[in-house]
Design brief:
Methane Monooxygenase Hydroxylase, Chain G, domain 1; 80% helix; 228 residues
Length: 228
């Protein structure tokens, strides 16, 4: 006869499921924001802005669930790390959603002006940012520190792409001063994608802590072997 779940186990499951739902919505929001930008779809951009309220609601729900779980059960060791990690991941996901909202707001502004000749590496930055968020949440679900490290290493590529975008947009502004307003907005968008990568990295740092009790935040450590 199979043993039923305890109330504590049910609480842990509810936290995990709520966090996964939030992560799924956030990843979807990133995709919508870049489509609104690339396709000049103002309606989709407004949908992203309006949908941010549900993500904010989930953050508050997860926070309350975690506080209640800590107060009622006083978990230890791995369970304690899981709950505290969930409390830290939810705000990172909420900030990622805020960046997607910012991208959509810039898209609304850009849609009022003629398009730039090209969006340079912006779609590639968006794809990499989505990959990092998806990979971070997969690492959390599987409690896989190696997968988390793989995502952390992807952040350098996103930073490099942002620098390339800045150089190309600067060239646009120098060649044609009429593009300055639009190019500046695009630099903001590139920075938002770079920040999404940073938040995904934060999530992975928390996953490493959750799985191994090893703190890598604010250190020079960037690989499991301990190298810089």
């Amino acid at each position: 006869m199979e043993r039923g779940s305890t109330p504590f186990e049910e609480q842990l499951r509810e936290i995990a499921e709520s966090l996964l739902r939030m992560g799924g919505l956030v990843e979807e929001t990133i995709g919508k924001s870049v489509r609104a930008l690339v396709d000049r779809d103002s309606e989709l951009a407004r949908e992203v802005v309006a949908g941010d309220e549900e993500i904010d609601r989930l953050e508050l729900l997860i926070d309350n669930l975690c506080i209640e779980t800590l107060a009622r059960n006083q978990p230890m060791a791995g369970d304690l790390r899981f709950v505290t990690t969930a409390m830290k991941i939810a705000p990172d996901l909420e900030r990622i959603a805020d960046h997607a909202v910012n991208i959509s707001e810039r898209a609304l502004e850009l849609n009022e002006e003629p398009p730039l000749r090209a969006l340079v590496d912006m779609p590639l930055m968006a794809m990499r940012a989505q990959q990092m968020v998806r990979g971070a949440m997969d690492a959390f679900v599987r409690r896989d520190a190696d997968a988390a490290w793989s995502v952390i290493k992807m952040d350098d590529d996103l930073d490099h792409r942002m620098e390339q975008v800045f150089r190309v947009l600067l060239s646009h502004m120098i060649e044609d001063p009429r593009t300055i307003s639009r190019a500046l907005r695009m630099t903001f968008v590139a920075k938002y994608f770079e920040r999404i990568g940073d938040q995904a990295t934060n999530i992975c740092e928390q996953v490493v802590f959750m799985t191994s009790a090893r703190v890598i935040k604010h250190t020079m450590v960037r690989d499991p072997a301990g190298g810089a």
